[in-house]
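User: Sequence in, structure out. Go.
Assistant: Echoing your sequence, followed by the structure tokens.
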Amino acid sequence: MKQKVLITGASGFVGYHLIEAALAKGLDVYAAIRRSSDIKHLTPYNIKYTYPDFTNVDKLAKDLDENSYDFIIHAAGTTKAKNEDEYNRVNATYAANLAKAAKMGAGLQKMVFLSSLAALGPLTDTNELITESTLPSPVTAYGKSKLLAEAQLKDIDLPLIILRPTAVYGSRDKDIFIILKTFSRGLEPYIGKKAQQLSFVYAKDLALATVNALFTEETANGIYNISDGNCYTRYEMADITKNVLSRKTIKFHLPLTVVKGLAVLLEKTYGLFDKTPALNVEKLNELTAVNWCCNIEKAQKNLNFNPAYNLQQGLKEALEWYKQNEWF
């Protein structure tokens, strides 16, 4: 009999790759989605759907009990919210509610929570690497909500692994894709001229690491930073993209003060409609940070995490997918 895994946030970009990895591992996949979720891209897969109410611990416990999951991967969350309270509710309270519900039952072998490197925040020194013991200093409400979620989950006695992936890219991603599409159109914009160190992880590598983490020994429970293990300059993503697509670009640097003014204007404008713009003052803290490079030795040792893709390999595969599926 196949072991069952509940994957929350299953209709999203990362969720899609988690489903593929879980099925490849031979697991019986239950995809937790909203009834309004677009799941056309999931129809080819032999999976079951469930619609949990993350606001209600008792209802969650009933759902978990009925389906007797062996594993839970909690990837649901939000990267765009109207305010800090909403970030905390969706990213932290809902995660804690799910863990509390799982605690009420029996038989759960492991829960893996997808946090974010944003929970730690960036470094200001390019000579260092972010480690699991780096003093947290998140620069966005999103990062603070993920850090809060980690704290609340650690207070619940469950077999738990927390993964902190850096910037995730790959097929079906819509966020980094915006940047890649800009490069494909011949434009290469940057904010300011400050040197930066960045890190990335390909979605397939993150998905495989997540699924494999379900089967680790209890001694491996804990928190792990996840990237492809490399540090990149701010220009390398563009250079690789231009090479793969055989494009030339016009490179230009926008003054930080100008972009900051635009972010303030967008915040005020979108605020009139109770919405959050993709670019805001807080997001600038993240986009202009000096050092997002992290050390993954702990994950390599305890989780046997060996990334198969560096940025060159991952972007080449992702860009081919975007072209074949006519996203460009």
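User: And one key feature?
Assistant: The first strand starts at residue 4 and ends at 8.
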